[in-house]
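Q: what does this look like with NAP bound?
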Amino acid sequence: MTGATGNVGGKVLSLLREDGRKVRALSRNPAAGGLVPGPGFEVVTADLDRPETLPAALDGVQKVFLMSLGANKATHDARLVAAARTAGVEHIVQLSTLGVEVADDPRANPLGHWHRLAEDALRESGVPWTVLRPNGFMSMNLGWAPGIKADGTARGPLADVPEAIVDPRDIAEVAVRALTGEGHRGRVYELTGPEALTAREQTAVLGGLLGRELRFEPIPLADFRRMLLARFSEETANGVIRTLEEAVAHGAELHGRLSPHVEDVLGRAPRSFADWARDHLDAFRG
Ligand SMILES: NC(=O)c1ccc[n+]([C@@H]2O[C@H](COP(=O)([O-])OP(=O)(O)OC[C@H]3O[C@@H](n4cnc5c(N)ncnc54)[C@H](OP(=O)(O)O)[C@@H]3O)[C@@H](O)[C@H]2O)c1
């Protein structure tokens, strides 16, 4: 597993361990991420930026959950896939993104383009694959918590784009089905929530559950870029901003689309934003 300390990967890890599967987690710093080896659970220190660390991480592995992020995603995924092929891995489940299918112009949608190149690297490897293309994660809204606690204001970059955002738990459950079940090889799953809501509408849902009047305030993209630069490289930050500009202009069609694939794989409807919010209300209480 890559991303075992991340948003989706952390949930994939929990589900696999609850199911009694033998798992090996790859992390740049396992201790910092709280990864402690135990029965049936191995932890290796490895880094997609350091390809020499990957053969040992993949030795003896049958299946891989693959995630990476940012402008180096294609390079990272290609390295992992090459090492996996050498190790004789039987199946790779790759976390990608919605938007790959319309990322023809790398200048208009850099984020989608990075993921498209990463998908291409996997498909061309000859290793059996499943690709997951999620819409935005509901958990991104945890970033609203400080503003909501301070003055009842949720702040984010997209105010009025309808988005069928998806619960990362649903993404993780689909990933685990793909890793452990039959019939998922060669499939691309688009993963969305059950309804398209703008950020202002999501704020109203959250306010209703908290019993507080909340408002939504857009963050200008220039300010959002500065926030991204605190975490990511300039190339990644610029690519994310360009992709957001595109979403503001043309996002409703892409991000508002509902896909049946969560229900197809899990046999139940995707969790709604209200479901997610109900389970995370404490994060928004002062
Ligand atoms: N967030 C969204 O709304 C959204 C929507 C659609 C698609 N996606 C895609 O979903 C994926 C996950 O996004 P996220 O924002 O939720 O990320 P995330 O899971 O928070 O990413 C952090 C994870 O990446 C791992 N990682 C980072 N650099 C690494 C490296 N050099 N080598 C090995 N592992 C590395 C970290 O592992 P360690 O720190 O333990 O090494 C950690 O587990 C991305 O590809 C993103 O583009 C996200």
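The longest helix spans residues 234-255. The chain has a mean pLDDT of 97.
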